[in-house]
Design a protein that fits this description.
Layout lengths: L6 H18 L4 E6 L4 E6 L7 H15 L3 H8 L3 H10 L10 E6 L2 E9 L5 H11 L6
Antiparallel strand pairs: 1-2, 1-4, 3-4
Helix pairs in contact: 1-5
Length: about 140
């Protein structure tokens, strides 16, 4: 049933994201938020920087709020820097535009998002987030 992010899906996203981070050799934080941007689950790998969970959560909140990946938003907002800066200011630190977050979609409805931080370059964060949200038959 679509409409709510369930614990089982949160755990699945965290495990799939962790597996991809290990495969890529990235010490990352992975954060899951629900459709309203509330924390649903998180993990921080042993050697990830202490700030990475906060960055990952801000990315996830942004993807959930705008129902789009932060890679897409980054591209969309390149020509609209004033708008992007206004959004960042609006959220008092809750929003961050940068690659590494992907919405969790079920039955064509955004039910949450996965945010990742720790990869250099940020394309690695994006790969981890995409792997995290993939349904097992999509991998």
């Amino acid at each position: 049933m679509a409409g709510a992010l369930k614990l089982e899906r949160v755990e699945q996203c965290l495990q799939q994201g962790k597996a991809k981070a290990l495969e890529l050799g990235v010490e990352a934080a992975i954060v899951i938020v629900d459709e309203a941007g509330h924390l649903a689950g998180a993990l921080k790998m042993d050697n990830a920087l202490w700030i990475t969970p906060e960055i990952a959560q801000a990315k996830a909140v942004t993807a959930s709020a705008f129902r789009a990946s932060t890679a897409e938003l980054e591209e969309r907002w390149k020509a609209r820097a004033l708008f992007a800066n206004s959004i960042i200011g609006l959220g008092s630190g809750r929003f961050l535009v940068g690659k590494g977050a992907v919405p969790i979609i079920e039955d064509d409805k955004v039910i949450g998002a996965v945010g990742v931080s720790g990869g250099i370059p940020a394309d690695l964060d994006n790969q981890i987030a995409e792997a995290a949200v993939a349904m097992p038959d999509e991998q």
